[in-house]
Write a structure and sequence with these properties.
Elements lengths: L4 H13 L18 E9 L5 E8 L5 E5 L5 E7 L5 E3 L7 H4 L8 E3 L5 E2 L3 E4 L2 E4 L8 E2 L12 E6 L3 E10 L10 E10 L3 E10 L3 E2 L3 E3 L15 E4 L1 E5 L12 E2 L11 E2 L9 H6 L3 E6 L7 E7 L5 E7 L3 E5 L8 E2 L5 E2 L6 E5 L14 E2 L5 E11 L2
Antiparallel strand pairs: 1-2, 2-3, 3-4, 4-5, 6-16, 7-10, 8-9, 11-12, 12-13, 13-14, 14-29, 15-28, 17-20, 17-22, 18-19, 18-21, 21-24, 22-23, 23-29, 24-27, 25-26
Amino acid sequence: MKRTAPVYVCFLLSLFIGTGCRKAHDTYRPGKYAMEISQKTYGTLPDGRHVILFHLMNANGMQADIINYGGILVSLKTPNRKGHLGDVVLGFDDLESYLHDPPYFGALIGRYGNRIARGRFTLEGKEYSLAVNNNGHHLHGGLKGFDKQLWNAEPIQTDNAVGVKLSLLSPHGDEGYPGNLDCHVTYLLTNEDELRIVYRALTDRPTVVNLTHHSYFNLTECQRDILDHELTIGADRYTPVDEGLIPLGTLESVSGTPLDFRESTPIGSRIDNDDIQLLRGRGYDHNFVLNNRDGSPAQAALVYEPQTGRTMEVLTSEPGLQFYSGNFLDGTLTGKNGIVYGHRWGFCLEAQHFPDSPNQPAFPSVVLHPGEKYAQTTVYRFSVMK
């Protein structure tokens, strides 16, 4: 595999001394940098295992930091309209903070992203009971989901991207799920200013799988809340929820509701409307049924932040997109650079299958059988509007 000299030297040094030789770039210069991948020790888990941070930089200077604990995206630096690189994801400065059960900042989620009602489902005539960790329901893989696992990791490079390939074997019975699940997730930072996430999984017996990524984004570099961000979601329908945020089983039109984002709309313009769905979610925490899905990555959402000029496009092969507006952030968490994360300080756009699908036969299936391959791709593409 061909490497530029700086990348190769950084990689060799990281193997011998355990630290990367990352460069301190803070400007965006398209095509002016050598792609870079380096690594260093980020911290140590209570059982003594080391957590590694991988630093990625594309040819334009855009940067991403990923740790193999939880597959967490710790930092993502993208340019504003002045060419200044700023971090657009919520997170922490140290490993210890990620170990104290934060709200899934930047993590990979599995085996099942979102909720499964009462932590139960029936598959091929057998009922399975999962760990219950959210108001009597199963959420984001349970008590020790994929966000709390140390993944195996290796750096990778192509002609157009640098990245990290993560792998994890989730054993039969893990959090109550059937089957050994062999998972591989690859993060790629491309020269098109995309963070591309490619998921693959295999099983040795029938099981259910719904993987996703859980970054909280704030395109102001986390300087204020996200209510002025302008959002478009390509969805004519959504899945309404009950008081426990479990889908009612129907697909309802967004027309005439505060959940209509088919045209660009500030997130905060209707978030406090007296609407039963918003009251149940304390804001937006809903799955949107994406239009025009054929299994290949297509545009699902577009976000524009008017003061910085940053835009983020979300493309995915998945049928659904969970939009969460940071309703449970309350100022009790202090993140990177001492920033206090207040109410609605970040938003999530989680590409996925629908919540509670194992109990909803009308929803797209999440069942994976032996001999089949779970495969999905989600892309977060960044640009600037002048």
